[in-house]
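As described in the Methods, two query proteins were run sequentially through the folding procedure within a single session, without resetting any intermediate state between them. The first query and its resulting structure tokens are shown here.
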Amino acid sequence: MCDFYTKYIMRNILIIGAGRSASSLIKYLLSKSETENLKLTIADLSMEMAEKKTNNHPNATPIQLDIANVDHRQREIQKAAIVISMLPAHLHIEIAEDCLAFNKHMVTASYISPKMQELDSQAKEKGLVFMNEIGLDPGIDHMSAMKIIDEIRAKGGKMIQFESFCGGLVAPESDTNLWNYKFSWNPRNVVLAGQGGVSKFIQEGKYKYIPYNKLFRRTEFLEVEGYGRFEGYANRDSLKYRSVYGLDDILTMYRGTLRRVGYSKAWDMLVQLGMTDDSYPMENSENMSYRDFTNSFLAYHPTDSVELKLRHYLKIDQDDVIWDKFEELDLFNGNKKAGLKNATPAQYLEFILAEKWALQPDDKDMIVMYHKFGYEIDGKKKQVDSTMVCLGDDQTYTAMAKTVGLPVAMATLQILNGNITTPGVQLPIKKEVYLPILEELESFGVIFKDKEVPYMGYNPNNVGS
């Protein structure tokens, strides 16, 4: 009986959080459950959500789990060999502390928080793998970047430039609005993008900083073969991965988010109005129409309409496509209401966008990733551009769910099977992690196309700064 119980524990995977990003993760592990002798426990605050994701599979057990219920949470963790947390990032730490206490490996797709990093030495002492940042961005970006960087180093090259862009977008055939954008992940994160600190990076050896109120007017343009033109705006901190990637002395390090051309200029107008502010509640917001909401950011005028005041304030011509984008959002509709009490501007805007930018039943999403690697070898400067485009299958198995969930699932199985053994709190930058996962991802349509191009840099003639 003891041997049977031990064997069961060794192949039991506890997945905490059965939301949108977990669909492909669960599907993958269930597809491997017979050959790999896996048992999945799928836990969510919503029993309905957990049951939906198990799809009546004999090797999956749905349970309702409130992680605030410490006894229940710890009982389930004790039953598992490895724990996957698909919860919001700030909730991982309690799971991680339990995994330490009960000697369980752990996998998340989230950035390594300072509190998580503090568990590194204890995880190493116990021989536990705490794999983080193994989703899309962060995740696939790390793995695909390190693969090329390691290859450049192996042939004697020295990295001088690294740029990385990623965007969750709408597939071309489902691109039906003027913003060329629909939500494939948490709308709140999109509305608050870029807030909470200055964006910083290094360009040709010069440190650069972009405050939030200027972020969406400093964009870079990129062309992806077969998919057209995109623009990228800077992520908050491009510098923190220099030492992680072993690029401390690199001249250019820039990480950014991709959108279709024209999105950022229009979004900047919403920022300038104050609609993305999340720092204060608006009085009487439950009775506020969309038109009232827009007007609340504009000066009073006894005769001018809301439309006229907005055009004047933001200097938008009537034939400018930005005006059409605003009208498409119904920002001047006096009959529509969000009905949100004590809503911040960002929350009210999110309500408007969640309706307008929702993926429709037949819509598909798209992930685009673009890396630029500049390096020096034998006295010459060279460049490799690497691009990846992944299309979603449907509303459940979106490109976002695939690219976030599949690396998590693959890493989990690799750890369970003893192929990933380096202990501690880590991200997927070692060959034992990225080589097998990137190879397997190709069979799911996550394929990088690498191309040697002339080195462009930012300052090829060493002028300016």
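Immediately afterward, the second query was submitted; its sequence and tokens are:
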Amino acid sequence: MTGIETSPGDDTALWPAPTADGAVDATVTVPGSKSVTNRGLILAALAAEPGWLRRPLRSRDTLLMAAALRAMGVGIEETVSDGALGSSGPAGGEAWRVIPAGLHGPATIDVGNAGTVMRFLPPVAALADGPVHFDGDPRSHERPLHGVIDALRALGARIDDDGRGALPMTVHGGGALDGGPVRVDASSSSQFVSALLLSAPRFNQGVEVRHTGAALPSLPHIRMTVDMLRAAGARVDTPEAGGERGVWRVAPSALLGRDLVVEPDLSNAAPFLAAALVTGGRVTIPDWPERTTQPGDALRRIFTEMGGSCELTDTGLTFTGTGRITGIDADLHEVGELTPVIAAVAALAGSESVLRGIAHLRLHETDRLAALAKEINELGGDVTETEDGLRIRPRPLHGGIFHTYEDHRLATAAAVLGLAVGGVLVENVATTAKTLPDFPGLWTGMLDAATTSARRS
């Protein structure tokens, strides 16, 4: 069930997505949030005192972030905690001790294809003393960075990018940045705003970021940034109450060294909750927070609308499916990263779905809208791209190769389809390590638990 196959004449690894023999019944412990881990690393690196990150996600994106901060002089010590270290109490397991230091170059940073690394770190590099060079995977050269580059230049930074507004580039850090008011079009990525806010307490004048473009995607991620800044002692003003939308002000201040326990990555819970919906089973995700800014929390509402039910207790979130899937008409503008798995579930539904507000997904790890339409259609589906999303008309599906385009969320979507469709071969399932280490092991473990439970009954 976990084997890797290679297609004849091709060295691309193919993973046979397991088909569910019946209803799943499992508890799946999802690793920590990538978004929280990478924001936590930056805030700890810019703090005035050492801090802890407990239960951090160890994945390609977070290890790239840690390596980049180390290259600029930050100390990050990895240890295993029994919960007695620091002041956070019963948060045992892996912990990272972050020791701030004077940021410096020369340094070379590999961003991989991580949006948080390529966008959050240039403002940090502007505070370093010396040049910091950024490069990454070929796809990273195609992803927009103009919002961060233009804003940093307006705030006084010197950046060499040959006029491309993209990687590769070099930030010539001067040891400080004046800061002040800046305008940015973040309609292609909310990360442009978060990038400026995270480093703003260290700018001499702080920052006032004013979004000038069209609708702003993924607002929950900006709320996460603001909440984490405030928890670290920053003064952040978001004057939406007075009618002034799309403006964030951060005052210059020292950041606290926190003892932060990282929440489970709720977006990475999507395929496992989808498994309960698709198979009419039950999946529990431990430690689901009662209150969170993670976009993945919207899964409770979305998957309930598609035919399941959920219960949040002190243990975690238990989601139960009926085996009947209802299509939806949903605006996913704020939670676009959930789209691939939702699209996979919609392709197995009993009625049509329309997913809207997600044109910005064309600029993610791959063009996710084009990729989802092409790959589901190659399996017999009927998916069409709209101006800002997808229209999905369920059709009987068949097996075949599902290409992932080195996109972790495409791979997990393919696994969901494989639950109900025999013969789905997932190309390069290892790309899931970007944010979800050992996804194949977690996936087959969930299905094995259901098999064991059925045998006992």
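The mean pLDDT is 91. We note this only descriptively and draw no conclusion about the first query from it.
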